[in-house]
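Supplementary notes for students who missed Thursday's class. We covered one full example, reproduced here. Read the sequence, then the structure, then the short commentary at the end.
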Amino acid sequence: MKQHLIFIALTTGALLLSVNQSVAVESNTNASQAVSIKVAAKIRKGEIAANHKAAIKPIDINGATHKQLKRLPGIGDTEADKIIASRPYGSKADLVTHNVIDIGVYEKIKNQVVARQPRKGGKALNGMKKK
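Structure (token representation):
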């Protein structure tokens, strides 16, 4: 009889433990779904970008405005003016090789800029002088 009661107690304990864990997993799943729903709503409202890479659109140093350039870290009025005055650039590395900005600033912005080239026989890019 004692063995029978011990068996029932252990079985009941195991069942209670498994029920408790499944409730915890279900609770976490519901919390994850709630967070996903909130994030999706913010994406639809435009509060956050669906794709992080899409949120950080690279700035073209050959066609960016003074205001656009100043949004880059380490770029102020003086640097933006130098970038515009030294156009066109063959590559973004020309910013350093032509002594427009120093290497430290370049390291901060190199993943946020590009140096697009004009199409052959086509129009020049915005702000870019044709030769």
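Commentary. Strands lie at 59-60, 113-114. The longest strand covers residues 59-60. If anything here is unclear, bring it to office hours.
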